[in-house]
Design a protein that fits this description.
By secondary structure, this protein is an alpha+beta fold. The chain is 32% helix and 27% strand. The protein has helices at residues 11-23, 61-79, 99-111, 122-128, 148-162, 207-213, 289-296, 299-307, 309-320, 322-330, 381-395; strands spanning 3-7, 28-32, 49-50, 84-85, 89-93, 118-121, 136-140, 144-146, 164-166, 169-176, 182-188, 192-196, 198-201, 221-232, 243-246, 258-261, 267-270, 274-275, 341-353, 364-368, 371-376. The strands form 4 sheets. Strands 5, 6, 7, 14, 15, 16, 17, 18 and 19 form a 9-stranded mixed β-sheet that branches. The protein has a 6-stranded mixed β-sheet with strand order 9-2-1-13-21-20, with helices on both faces. Strand 16 (258-261) and strand 17 form a beta hairpin. The radius of gyration is 21 Å and the shape is globular.
């Protein structure tokens, strides 16, 4: 019997395990997760947007897999009775300087095959979002929201029905043996070692550490970026119908502070993007010396920080001041005040960075014989997870 292992029970790892089981019904598939629950980190700490594929460079994996993955995600949710709210999104230019980038973004979305995209003028924007101001906007009607934790739970049930899910088990290393097998050294609930024919590592915020311990290159390094959200108090939720986004800065992979009406009918505001001082503790005061040391000693981070310190100071001001946060969204919804915001969730993005200080903008997959390391899978990985699973299994010759 062929033995296949997936490291990490986030939404990408679970989707891959489900695809492996579907394509290899006679195989034994094991998902190994450090935490005691699935979806404990990036997959469970986000606003739940099913992205349409508007932002990503044509020809990139993100562009290809987001569009097809969004379609597969909506289909999967319909089959499993998971609520999806097709609320649509507007990307709003508020001054003349943003109009060229808005046009470029629209052309990129068309090139990526995003369905139903439309460039709308101010009057049409007011018809879509009566309380939003702007000169012009892109309307993306296919953008939707879902609870990705519910999706992960459904995927975990699919996996457990015909495979194995080992929770509370940390993978210490993933090494190719001379006999062609892959050995996983384990600690925790299933301590010891586990030999398999192929391993796919989806370790998220720990992906670089596990790769390095397993003999892979130190590049790219994961730099954690913490993003805080506020939510609108009930009386202010009427000001936003769907999703309201700024025109993104092309220098960064972050989309900027935006407003998202969730599938639970709350309106989230955020996130900001500050350097994370811990990879897996979401409290505002969290600090882990090892995490900070690894960030500060990575050559690329110092180069990145020197080039982007002004943006960093702006993000810190948003993180430390509710008024600063409110001022960022008042550009789009002038009626909002700081009193309309109350603290909500926080997430930590596993952002891969190269030695030269550049941020990895696409999904990053590394093959090491019978091992595949997923070294960078930030947003829109949740949206694209089912398509990522199909892509990876085909590239690995497992489907």
């Amino acid at each position: 019997m062929r033995r296949l292992a997936v490291v990490g029970a986030g939404i990408v790892g679970l989707a891959i395990a489900r695809e492996l089981l579907s394509a290899n019904p006679a195989a034994s598939v094991v998902v190994i997760e450090r935490e005691d629950v699935v979806c404990a980190h990036q997959s469970g700490h986000n606003s739940g947007v099913i992205h349409s594929g508007l932002y990503y460079a044509p020809g990139s994996l993100k562009a290809e897999l987001c569009v097809s993955g969004g379609r597969l995600m909506k289909q999967y949710c319909a089959e499993h009775s998971i609520p999806v709210h097709a609320c649509g999104k507007v990307v709003v230019a508020v001054d003349d300087s943003e109009l060229p980038r808005l046009r470029e973004l629209f052309e990129r979305g068309v090139a990526n095959g995003v369905p139903g995209l439309e460039m709308v003028e101010e009057s049409a924007l007011r018809g879509l979002e009566p309380h939003v101001v702007g000169l012009r906007a892109i309307h993306s009607p296919s953008t939707a929201v879902v609870d990705f934790s519910a999706v992960a739970d459904a995927l975990a049930q699919d996996v457990a029905a015909s495979g194995h899910l080992w929770l509370g088990t940390e993978v210490l290393s993933v090494i190719s043996r001379s006999d062609g097998l892959v050995r996983l050294e384990l600690a925790g609930a299933h301590a010891g070692h586990f030999d398999c024919d192929f391993a796919i590592v989806c370790a998220g915020l720990q992906s670089d550490r596990l790769a390095i311990r397993s003999g892979a290159d130190a590049e790219p390094r994961i730099i954690p970026f913490r993003g805080s959200y506020y939510r609108l108090r009930p009386a202010a939720q009427r000001l936003v119908r769907g999703l309201v986004y700024p025109v993104p800065d092309p220098r960064f992979p972050f989309l900027g502070i935006h407003l998202t009406r969730t599938v639970h009918d709350e309106v989230l505001v955020g996130p900001n993007a500050c350097l994370g001082l811990s990879r897996d503790n979401y409290s505002r005061s969290a600090f882990a010396w090892q995490d900070v040391r690894e960030t500060l000693t990575w050559p690329g981070f110092l180069r990145f920080a020197r080039s982007n310190w002004r943006a960093g100071m702006r993000e810190i001001s948003h993180a430390t001041s509710r008024r600063g946060f409110a001022s960022a969204v008042r550009r789009y919804v002038p009626e909002l005040t700081a009193d309309d915001l109350e603290p909500s969730l926080a997430g930590i993005r596993a952002q891969a960075m190269l030695r030269d200080g550049s941020l990895v903008d696409d999904f990053w997959l590394d093959f090491r014989g019978s091992i595949l390391d997923v070294r960078n899978a930030p947003s829109p990985a949740a949206t694209a997870s089912l398509a990522i699973a199909d892509h990876i299994c085909k590239r690995a010759g497992l489907s």
